[in-house]
Design brief:
20 helices, seven-stranded mixed sheet, about 500 residues, eight-stranded mixed sheet, alpha/beta, globular
Length: about 500
């Protein structure tokens, strides 16, 4: 059922990594025979919040559980959500078809389920449930253990997305307790990353922003903007194309998107939802070289990249404000950064690791390249040249012709993940960092979108939540102070450039 290659290989190596951390080495037994069942109440699908919950769960579950069944009611789908389903009606049949597009080799049915490994109920259903998902009267997202949850706020779409991600996280612990720990108790989240209400105004407005990175977290930001029917203007920056292996984590994309450029695809979807959006096949530094006038319009950067090095490069461009999300295998952070204001800039929060353990050095060692070569390729996201591919092939004792043909056009991080990390993880190499399962990135991206759309500014600048073994624990909030040895905050040239660009204009 799991198969080989693409997202199947990605799931296998992620599970191998989690099994290694937990001490359980029986990967096959962990993956085999696991099934999820999603039951939809008619009352829930009569609300836009309930439809968002059902759609979000149908987009998350197949990414880590390749056997899902659907049952219950159907309803006419809210027009704004139709591009995300490809149908005008939401129900078991259309959601099973969506799941099949996400994982074509999976097993997805719309008949009443046989006994499943975990049953999730949307709204008040009559079925015996393992996880009930809903929204309470205060607009808080709920994932309840062993009982149904009502949808008390019919239009609370962002709480609906968060509730679905929390329920998906809880369901994963039912399915894979050896990896993620025992199933959680009741989980409730009622506020956004800066402490205000989780729910947002109907038709929220996005001030002109630049989204850097349309990976797992960035896809969740775009998905949230679409579900919320947000309005505004955004530039999306990412030079990479959608790869089959990405589909394990990217809530926005399915198999029909493989091969397309992430930024262009996401921008096209946003335009169907009424947002002014343009996609650019570039990282931020290259984008600013091509569009020098944009430096003076770099008011808000939404940072959804996956490396300390890339975050450092974004911080060096000194936007007025950076909204950032970062994920690990078990938790995520959402943070807000200015510059030269006494609080941590993005570089303060993510100081670059230098030495044998930093990502560029690790990749260079495995690929037979220098850390400088790998670092430059990571910065630009440029495809690896044929000359370098042949060097890597010789270093890894593979046939250069075959290796070059298979890896042509890949950026360095994709080359490293596919050519090296897949085998390394299965070989039980401890300490290697993997991105989380799909619901972790989705939670981070949904709350990053909240930070971008929240009309009120609050003091808290840093938010951390655990979606792994401690799902029930309350999130942490605070405001990190500037780091004394930050190579940006302590650099007079950066401070002066920021003052000229932003402070002198006020």
């Amino acid at each position: 059922m799991i198969g080989v290659g693409g997202r199947h290989e990605e799931l296998h190596r992620t599970v191998a990594h989690l099994a290694d951390l937990s001490g359980d080495v029986e990967i096959g037994s962990i993956l085999s025979g696991r099934r999820a069942h999603l039951d939809l109440s008619g009352e829930a699908l009569g609300t836009s919040a309930g439809q968002v919950i059902a759609l979000t769960l149908a987009r998350l579950l197949p990414r880590y559980c390749p056997q899902v069944s659907f049952s219950g009611a159907s309803a006419s789908l809210t027009p704004a959500l139709r591009p995300l389903l490809g149908e005008s009606e939401i129900g078991p049949t259309s959601l099973a078809a969506l799941a099949a597009r996400i994982w074509p080799n999976g097993s997805f049915t719309h008949a009443p389920a046989s006994k499943g490994s975990v049953t999730i109920g949307v709204g008040r259903t009559g079925r015996m449930l393992d996880v009930g998902v809903g929204i309470d009267h205060q607009g808080a997202a709920q994932a309840l253990r062993g009982r149904a949850a009502a949808i008390a706020c019919a239009e609370a779409r962002l709480p609906g997305m968060v509730a679905a991600a929390l329920a998906a996280a809880g369901a994963a612990r039912h399915l894979y307790p050896a990896l993620l720990g025992a199933a959680p108790g009741d989980v409730c989240l009622g506020s956004g990353p800066s402490g205000g209400p989780l729910d947002l105004p109907v038709t929220p407005t996005l001030q002109r922003s630049h989204l850097v990175g349309v990976g797992a977290g960035g896809c969740a930001v775009v998905y949230a903007l679409l579900c919320l029917e947000a309005r505004g203007e955004i530039e999306l920056l990412d030079p990479d194309a959608v790869d089959d292996s990405n589909l394990m984590r990217y809530i926005l994309f399915d198999a029909s998107h493989v091969g397309g450029t992430k930024s262009a695809l996401a921008a096209g979807l946003l335009r169907t939802g009424g947002i002014v959006a343009e996609g650019h096949e570039a990282v931020l530094a290259e984008y600013l070289r091509r569009h020098p006038g944009e430096r003076s319009r770099l008011e808000t950067v939404i940072c959804a990249v996956d490396s300390y090095r890339m975050r450092g490069n974004i911080a060096r461009e000194i936007p007025r404000q950076i909204l950032n999300a970062g994920t690990s295998a078990a938790d995520f952070t959402v943070s807000r950064h200015g510059f030269n204001d006494g609080y941590a800039c993005l570089r303060c929060l993510y100081p670059e690791v230098v030495g044998a353990s930093d990502p560029a050095s690790l990749a260079a060692l495995a690929l037979g390249l220098t850390a400088e070569e790998v670092g430059e390729l990571m910065d630009t996201k440029a495809p690896v040249s044929e000359l370098i591919l042949r060097r890597v092939a010789r270093h890894r004792q593979e046939d250069p012709e075959s290796f070059t043909a298979r890896r042509a056009g890949q950026p360095i991080d994709t080359l490293y993940n596919k050519a090296v990390c897949g085998g390394a993880a299965v070989a039980r190499v401890r300490g290697e960092v993997f991105a989380p399962l799909a619901f972790g990135s989705a939670l981070a991206g949904f709350l990053l979108a909240h930070a971008a759309l929240d009309p009120t500014a609050r003091p808290d600048r840093w938010f951390r939540a655990d979606f792994g073994r401690h799902l029930e624990d309350p999130p942490l909030r605070g405001s990190r102070r500037v780091r004394d040895d930050c190579d940006l905050c302590s650099d007079e040239d950066y401070v002066e450039a920021h003052r000229r660009r932003w402070v002198d204009l006020e």
